Structure formats: C-alpha cells, structure tokens
Amino acid sequence: MKGADNSVNRYNRVKTYFSKPQNIILLLFGIVLTFSTVAPIIAIVKDTITIHPGTIDAHLAGKASGYTLINYVDLFTSRLAKTNLWKPLWNTILLAVFTCTISILYGGTFAFLVTRTNLKFKKYLSSIFIFPYIMPQWTLAVVWQNVFNSNAVVGTSNGLLASLTGICMPKWWCLGLFPSSVVLGLHYAPFAYILIGGIFRNMDANLEEAATILDTPKWKTMFRITLPMVKPAILSTILLVFGSAMGSYPVPHYLGLTTLSTKYISLNSKYTGEASILAIIMMIFGVAILTMNQVSLKSRKNYTTVTGKSGQLSKMNLGKVGKYAIAVVMIILTFFTSIFPIFSFALETFLPNPGDYSFLYTKDLSNLTTKWWITKENITENGMYGQHGILYNSTIWHAFAGTLLVAVCCALIAGTIGTLIGYAVAKNRRSRWASYVNGVAFLPYLMPSIAVGAAFFILFSNEKINLFNTYTLLIIAGTIKYIPFASRSALNSMLQISNEIEEAALIDGLGYFGILRRIVLPLSTAAIATIGLYYAVFFWNDWFNSLIYLKSDQYPVMMFLRNIVNGTMVIGTGSGSAEKTTIAISVKSAVIITSTVPIIVIYPFLQKFFVKGLTIGGVKG
After folding, report:
1. CA pair distance 186, 132, nearest whole angstrom
2. H helix or E strand, kind and range, residue 373
3. DSSP string, 420-484
4. Nearest Cα residue to 405 out of 487, 474, 486
5. For residues 550 and 559, is the Cβ–Cβ distance under 8 A?
6. Cα 481 vs. chain centroid, distance in angstroms?
7. Residues forming beta bridges with residue 466, ordered by sequence position
8. pLDDT digits (tens, 9 = 90+) for 250-274
9. Using CA atoms, how far apart are residues 250 and 261, in angstroms rounded to an integer?
10. Please, which residues bridge with residue 316 across strands?
11. CA distance 534 to 540
12. Three-state DSSP class for 316?
C-alpha cells in the first residue's frame, strides 16, 4: 500500500511539473541547446590538440597526424608569443572595455534623457538613434576611412576632410584602437538604449515616490533604488557588447587593429591549432562575464510599496532652455552617427572618381555621374570596369532574394525560440536548471563566428549529413548563433510582467498554458515584434556564416557586399571582370546604399514596435 502511495505521489509530482509550460520549455531546449552548443565547443577543444597536415603543428610535432600539446607550448612560449597572443589579447580586452564604456555611456544617457526627462523632439531622436545598428558595423568603419583617411598619413586616397580642408588627422585617429572602439561603441549603443530605456520606462513610479515622501535625498534614491533596478539591463548590455566586441572581425580588420579575432583569421591556415586556442581564450572571457550576470540575475531586488498607486513616472525638468539645448546637441550627434553615413555613401555613388569632390567648390553638378547606377551595357569600359550598373545587375538581385529568405526564416524561428526561453527562465530564474539553460543559450554568442562556423561545417557537411551550400545549413547555424539576443531581450521583458496578474488568472481557473497563450504572449507582442525585427536586421547584416557554408553563386547580399568592399569579387561578367578586380569606391558605396535601403524603408512602418518594446510589462498594482 505504501509503495502504491509513493507511485501515485511521484506521478502527481511529474504531472504537476509538466503542467507548467515553462518547465517543458526548459527541459526541451535544455537538451537541444546542450547538443547544439557543446558539440562545437568539443570540436574546437579537439582542434587545439589535433595535428593538421601541412601546418606548423605538423612540422613542430614531426608527424602528419595524431594529437599533441605542441600548439599550446608554441603559442604561449615561442618568440612569436607576443605577436600572436599577448598583444592581440591586450588589444581585444581594451577594445571590449572601451566599446562597452562608450555604448553604455552614450546609449544609457540617451535612454535616460528620452524616458526620464522633458527633452524635446523625443520621437525623432528615438527613431534616428537606431540607425547605426541597422547598418552593418563595418560600413561605419568604411565611413570613418572615407572621412578621415589621408594619403600623407595612411597612404590611401584622401578622405572627405583632407580633400576639402587639407587637414590630415593623426594615425592613431585613423587606425587602431581609438577608431575601432568608437565605431563599435556607436554600433552597439542602441543595445544600451533599448535595454536600459526599457527598464527606465517600466520602473514602478511608486518606488521613487515613496522615497520622496520619506524625504530621501535624490542621490540616495538614485543609488539605492534607481540604479539597482537598472543594473540587470546594464549587465545584459555589458554581456552582449563585450562578447560582440571580442568576436568582432570586420571593424578591427578595416581599421588596422590586431585582435584575437583578426589574429585567428590570419593564423587559421598555417597555425590552425593555435588559432583554435585563441577561440578558447575568447570563450573563457565570455563565460566569466556570463557567470557574473547569472549571479546578478539571481540577486535581482524586488520592492513592495505601501504608498498607494501612481499613474506615471516623475520626469526631470531640464528647464525651458535646457530641454531645447540638449535636444539640439543630441540632434547634431545623431546626425553624424546616423544620417551622415548614409549621406556619405550616397554622395560617393555620384562621384566620377574616388575622392573627386570638385563639384562642391566649382558648384558644377555636371561633375557628378549616375553611371554607377544606370549603366546598362558592359562592353565598353566607360569607367565601369566592364560591369553593369547596380540597378541592372542580376547578381545583386539574386543575392537580395537569398538574403530575404534567410532573414525571414531565421527571424521567425530564432525569435520564437528565444522568446520561449526568456519566458521560461523568467518564471524559474532562481532554479539551477533555468540558469543552466540561460547560460548554454548564450554560449554561441561568446564564440567567434568563424570558429562556430567551422564546427558546424564539420557536423553538417559529411557523408551522412551534407547540407553544404544550402540555405538550410545557413538557417540552422544562424538560428543557434543569434538566439542569445532574443532570449536576453525576452528575459528583460518577461521580468517586467507582474506575477500578480498570473496569480489572479490561476485563481480564476485559467491553466498555465492558458496563461501563456492568453496573457503572457499578448502582453509581450511588442517585445516579440521588436525581437523579430532586430533578428531580421542581424541576419540581413551577417556574412560570416555565408563565407563558410555557401559558394559564391549562393552568397547573400552582405557577403556579396563584403567581397565588393575587399575588392575580391566582381559584379558582372563584362570585359573588365576578373577573380580579383579593383572596384571603385563609388561601386562599393552604391552596393552599400542598395543593401541598406530596404531596412531603412521598412523601419518607419515598424518603428512603433520598437517604442512598444520599451514599455512592455507596465502592469501596475
């Protein structure tokens, strides 16, 4: 009888456990993500001790196959250790720290001004602030070069500043750590704005009103209430930005900074095992930050007030002059970080030759040209290197179609998975399994794209499973790679939904699945739409995965564009075509404008989802 009772009790516990959707979600995705995350990690670790034929480890080990620790010995102790490890490591840490600092100070300050003050022109500023993120990060690096480079300092053609004024900026301004940090900081500032701004908007006004009633000094309210409430968003921003900056390849590459990522690429062909060690080092840094974030998430403070209800947040008064003066300053800043890059690229597409700004001081518009856009023939050179104009080039339109397919599929799949994970972790955030799922979901974000790509290439390009050169593999790898942003965004949103409304629904007889379907998801519609839109931008701008999984005839638009910018790909089959062709800056800019315009065009129609995404979870009571 006692055994039967124990069986019934176990059955009831299991039934109760699986009656909660968050438990099912955690169990299912915990298993799936463990495989999809651990398998690449094992592949990378194994690669560090594997002897690769024809590489330096085979030479040092004196054999063509097998396993060895010579890669570790050579990387850490050889005479090239400073060049291959320590200098890139130091540059990577500095780049990540400076990028986090710039993005949080700029994005966080902007979020405070928009959400907690009477600043003017908020709607316009909120819309335009997102633009640096919409554009691929390396396009901002190209803009930096187009503006500040000069022949006297860096040996390239003169940029806009040197051409018009003769001013040549110093080398540290044009190349290296400073421009890389600024470009990446501006690119990731929208993270800080969205995450920190969301917390500012959704913060219960009762908390600060209670402190005011108790005559608490404003500085004490800031440090004891406001900042603890904003801390999860700040740490999430640090986590996302630090991991992204450490794994960033395009910006340091274009701006001449040697980091672990750029060194990984340069070492991978001849020092394959040592390149994988660099990937492991980047992962270790990411895991350390992830651990700190988990500790912070568990210690997140909850407050209860007994001062009554409040309808809205109190806002800081900037004064009659201040609210306009600060707005003008922000308009100028956002112009140079958001509008000017687009304008710069658009201008380049009408110049007859790179750096030829003669129309500005001659005021003769005949010095401009539209050949980069509307040339229909590719027989005569006509200054086009034998290429069609962008609007008549079939290759780029084929790339657009492939990009759209991948972006939509990945946004739907990864956005859905990330939202479910965020919901489940928010409901069980103090459990060890939830912490594990949350952590393992984020790990792919910490690994360099090339390293993850190589691991997935091995897993899905063999005799048993061969998905090479298919969009299916691109969607699978891309979904896993970018789940972290969706889960982090959904988690921050779900944490703002009051538990009281779910408890009330349970009392009224609504089950857990009904709560998820009829309460949680409807309240999170704006956040889900925001995640989906951002995911679409992620995949639209991605080219690392395409480099590994696809051949040139299947390249999406960003990989196509990356090769155009590098001068390693032509855009047609004219008389000037070759495997490596020097493409004019005007052609590069035209492709950049063409690839960016679709996102810019649809953004105003979807902007409301960004705004609503900042106000999700505002259930008072």
Report:
1. 7
2. helix 371-374
3. HHHHHHHHTTTSHHHHHHHHHHHHHHHS-HHHHHHHHHHHHBSSS-B-TTSHHHHHHHHHHHHHH
4. 474
5. yes
6. 11
7. 461
8. 889 889 899 988 888 788 778 888 8
9. 9
10. 117
11. 10
12. strand
- In this structure, what token pair is assigned to residue 252? 């340091």
| Residues contacting 512, CB < 8 A, separation 6+ | 19, 20, 21, 22, 506
The tokens 């959704």 sit on which residue?
202
Please answer whether residues 511 and 19 qualify as being in contact, where contact means their C-beta atoms are separated by less than 8 angstroms: yes
Q: What is the pLDDT of residues 24-41, one digit of tens each?
A: 888 888 888 888 877 777
What mean pLDDT is predicted for residues 576-591? 52
Segment 207-224 shows an average pLDDT of 70
One-letter amino acid for residue 327 of the chain: A
Q: Which residue has the tokens 């939830």?
A: 434
Helix 525-541 vs helix 394-427: crossing angle, to nearest 10? 140
Whole-number pLDDT of residue 177: 94
Write down the mean pLDDT value for the chain: 76
Sign of CA dihedral 457, 459, 461, 467: negative
Q: How far is CA 181 from CA 25, 91, 254, 455, 554, in A?
A: 38, 10, 13, 29, 33
pLDDT at res. 618? 35
Residue in the block written with tokens 């538990």: 499
Look at 199 and 264; give whichever has higher pLDDT: 264
Is the Cβ–Cβ distance between 477 and 549 less than 8 Å? yes
Among the listed residues 37, 40, 137, the one whose alpha carbon sits nearest the alpha carbon of residue 95: 137
Residues 6+ apart with CB under 8 A from 592: 139, 142, 345, 561, 565
Q: Are 315 and 116 in contact (CB under 8 A)?
A: yes
